[in-house]
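User: Could you walk me through two proteins back to back? I'd like the raw sequence and the structure tokens for each, with a short line separating them so I can tell where one ends and the next begins.

Assistant: Of course. Protein one, sequence then structure:
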Amino acid sequence: MKPSLIINGAAGRMGRRVISMAAESEAFNIIAAVDIATHPDIGKDAGLLAGIGEIGVNITSEYPETADVMIDFSLPQATDATVEYCAKNGIALILATTGLTDSQLKSLKNAAGKIPIVYATNLSVGMNVLFATVGKVAKMLGEDYDIEITEAHHRFKKDSPSGTALSLAQAIAEETDRKYPDCLVHGRQGTDALRKKGTIGMHAIRAGDITGQHSVIYSALGETVTISHNAHNRDNFARGAVRAAKWVIDKEPSLYSMKNVLGIE
């Protein structure tokens, strides 16, 4: 029997792609597609909303009694209830919500003592390879290279910088013994804005319908090395979520990352 899947934030842009990718994978029985009670698409067939035809599951604001795994692409305001529900009912969780508070991260770690949780600021396979790489590159290049991170997203994204950009910075800081987040400089302004040695510049762009672009720039006097990732659409995030959901089934309670899912050392 296929494992049962709940998709939370199902009526949103990412939720719809997860519905499509999960159905395409044929690995799960989608039993619930959940969103906030005030969403205008409540009651509509989730498959029709995702553009794949009817699947017999309507968008609802109610969680089912139980399931094997949940993929959550909702908002931070919903995270506490989501984590509590999954922990109480023994449901594995793939959490891709960014902008969580320290308190929410603490609750997530506590819940991971009861259920397996994969938490990732970015579920793209390619981006997680970058997470595993950018710190090593910074360490090899050495202190003479200034480091700047740029990220661009669509005009509707609320949090800034992106969780992905912060994860890139954190990976660099950990590998190069910088103090995070104190080493971050968010943009520059004024007549005396020279960069300080050892800092990591962080720059956010919000425009149009940009899906997601991230670059790490390492520059010294004489040369520049740039590592970039461009998301062509949302499908890579959705496929990563489905891949993580397949992996997490029957895992022991713990807080996992996409490094665990992908077997990255």
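----
Protein two, same layout:
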Amino acid sequence: MAIPTPSKRKFLGRLSLPERNFVAEALRAETVGGVLLLVAAIAALIWANTLGSNYESVRGFHLGIGALGLDLSIQHWAADGLLAIFFFVAGIELKRELVAGELRDPKAAALPVIAAVCGMAVPALVYALVNISGNGSLDGWAVPTATDIAFALAVLAVIGTSLPSALRAFLLTLAVVDDLFAILIIAVFFTNSINFAALGGAVVGLAVFWLLLRKGVRGWYVYIPLALVIWGLMYNSGVHATIAGVAMGLMLRCHRTEGEEHSPGEHIEHLMRPVSAGLAVPLFALFSAGVGISGGTLADVFTRPETLGVVLGLVVGKAVGIFGGTWLAARFTKAELNDDLAWADVFAVASLAGIGFTVSLLIGELAFADQVQLTDEVKAAVLVGSLMAAVLASVLLKMRVRKYKALVEDEERDDDQDGIPDMYELDKPEYHLRMATIYENKAAEHRRLAQLAGAGRDDGDSPA
């Protein structure tokens, strides 16, 4: 008797229906936020290049409570305050991926995790090589390591390319893991001095936050004031305040119990994602992306090692790192690529991940905080590199757009109109019985119409 051999695991294969629905909803919100992000970035560039002094005075305007160490400029409120909301949502996304998404199975998680790690390591290496050879500063090695999922999806929305759900899920998982490592980089490498009293207070606040969640305490009037206290203490500790956001996001329960339609984490993410994508990130872009663009500035982007390293890291490093990491991981884990896709599709998505905007701008500000001129040049490099990555990805995706549209149509086909795509019902006998009935009814209708047409011709109704 022959022993059946186990089938090889498919890479970028069909998602489960719940996971597909979650990815579709999450990316729909991110796409809208990405379009707002593009609008905010363009507005910032126009504002900074037409009314530069006004732009600088507005974003440099200070407000807050000085006695609490929170007398900050509007630019810092956007970077340290509003981005905490962005990282809070990122923390929930990561928690959900770990307990119910692509990262819950270590074998399935290996590919996107390795791809994300390589997609951060190679850009950093490219930056380092460019600056070592050009006698530049290594301080900005982390700038080209980030991926902006909202901006990437906005590019997809603008060019009108439909991506199959598996590729979209891969891009989303990459971005989630990317955010995790970006948070670790900010916490480890961009914390100069620590106020241990404030940090201890923040840790106590997080412990109270976790305990209240465990006890099932409900009410925004409890958690929002506590979250603000934790954020304020984390900011005063010297650790970047966005760490508080991701820590609280990771504490939320993202698995459903019996009788629950949505877990608390999913519910809060659904409420906070529009605030993050529609308000927090666009406002950060408005007050961070405004840099003076001139012929000299653009020339410096390609001649100065720090800025050239950022551009090459985003455009070349991201694509090579993610694609190479994915290919090697698939080869050594013996995972077979989905028959409907090609490795060129993986490279196109890897190129799309080279759009590093929000977190790259943030890290650029942190890396060169004491060099204002270089900070602006690095921001310009982030904009140029992201634009080049977007154009490259758009060209590659357009080359396969017919294939993608056909795959998406197959995914969304619902001939029996029961609200569930047919591909998820092909293995159910009742589906085939239902479809046979539908086709038989259509055939009967066609026969009836043919008989009526024949009767009409017999009565002399048809033209001679």
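Residues 1-7 have pLDDT under 50 and may be disordered.

Let me know if you want the two compared in more detail.
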